[in-house]
Every structure is written in structure tokens, then in C-alpha cells.
Amino acid sequence: MCVSGGVRRGGGCGVGLAGVARQVMEPPGLSLSLTLLLLLLPHTSSPEPLRPADDLTTSETCLPHAPKVNCSFLPLEFLECEKPTDHRGNQSARDDEGHGCVKFGGQRFEDVEITKVWCVVLEGIDCCGERRFLRDGFPCIKYSGHYFVTTLIYSVLLGFLGMDRFCLGQTGTAVGKLLTMGGVGIWWIVDIVLLITGSLTPEDGSNWNPYV
């Protein structure tokens, strides 16, 4: 009886073409060695795709004479900027963070604080450098629905009832003004003068809205 791949010839077993090919292609112990080698090789997984949130902080080095503009040079139309941080009068917190507002508002330009805010380049805008950065030149101003002309009209017509101070959020003094009928007229006139000179402002420190 011959082994598979052999040909019986005159009582003996010869090696056929299939057997010769198998012996050439598969030397002894080769299959076992390949199996052990595959088992010992480390399995590497494909890297995870970049998430959109990570892509916001991805930066590209700006090269001299490159056609791309630095992201920090882009105008505000191509940026999404956060609101200034309110430190609520804490100067130490402002110094530690390096940006933010200690106070908001101001009647004159020199009274308004200027700070930096975090800005992110809008999606689809191609630029080089950091895509999230601090942009300087933002005034510490906030609006909360207070209008100067409207408040002045309330003060002139209904000031003896404390309506102007109610509108400004100064409830305590507004009740006192109401009970005394505008301080017998004196408080009424004083508040009109304070409004015109900029000494009477909203309680929350916000600025007057520019429109009526």
C-alpha cells in the first residue's frame, strides 16, 4: 500500500509528481514554524479616526512665504469667540488667569476694561497655526435690556413713583422713593440729574443699549 501521492510500480511505491511538489513546497516542520510565528506576532489595531472636537485644536506650522494665513490674523467674521470671563471684582483671579473682566461697563472710553477672549476658527476655514487662541481687544461690556431714553422718560413722567429705579433693578431705593412720593419732589429731580450725568446706572453693571 502506497502513501498518498505515490505510484505503485512493480511491488514498490514510487513518488508521483504531486508527492514531489508537496515535499518541495512543505519542508518538514515548516507548517508548525509558520503557525508559531503568527501566534507570537503582536496584533496591531488600526488608529482611531480623528474626532471633530480634536480637530479644533489641530495646528499646522506656518512656513515663511506660505500661501496660508496665520489663524490668529483672521478677522472676526471667520472666528467664533467666547464672552469675556466675569471675575466679579476679583482682581487676583484676573491676574492668575491672565484675562477676563474685573468689572463691566463704564460711561467713558477710558473707564472700560479691555481683555482677551478665547476664539476658535470656524469649520471649513483653512489656515496655519493654532486654531484656538486668545484674541485681544474685547471691551468688558454687557447688555441686559436697559435703555437710556426709556429710563429717562420714566424718570421725568413717573419718577415720583420710583418707576425709573424699578426699571434699573434698584428695588430697595425704588420702594423708598415710592413711599415718600419722590422725596417730596426733591428725590425726583435729583434722579433726573443723576441719569443725565451718568451717575445713575443699571444695578447689574450693564451698559445702556444703543437703541431705544
Describe, in plain words, how this protein is organized in 3D.
Strands 3-4-5 form a three-stranded antiparallel sheet, with no helix packed on it. It has a two-stranded antiparallel ribbon with strand order 1-2. Helix 5 packs antiparallel against helix 9. Helices cover 34% and strands 17% of the residues. It has helices at residues 17-25, 30-40, 52-55, 91-97, 148-158, 163-168, 171-179, 181-184, 186-197; strands at 6-9, 12-15, 79-81, 114-121, 132-139, 143-147, 207-209. 15% of the residues are buried. Strand 1 and strand 2 form a beta hairpin. The chain is of the alpha+beta class.
Q: What is the H/E order?
A: EEHHHEHEEEHHHHHE
Oligomer: single chain
Could you give the distance between the termini?
111 Å
Mean pLDDT: 78
The level of helicity is: 25-40%
Give the helix tally: 9
- Give, in spatial order, the strands making up the sheet with the most strands: 3-4-5
C-alpha geometry: elongated
Number of strands: 7
Helices and strands: which structural class? Answer: alpha+beta
Strand percentage lies at 15-25%
Radius of gyration: 40 Å
What summary fits the major beta sheet? 3 strands, antiparallel
Low-confidence stretches: 1-22, 44-55
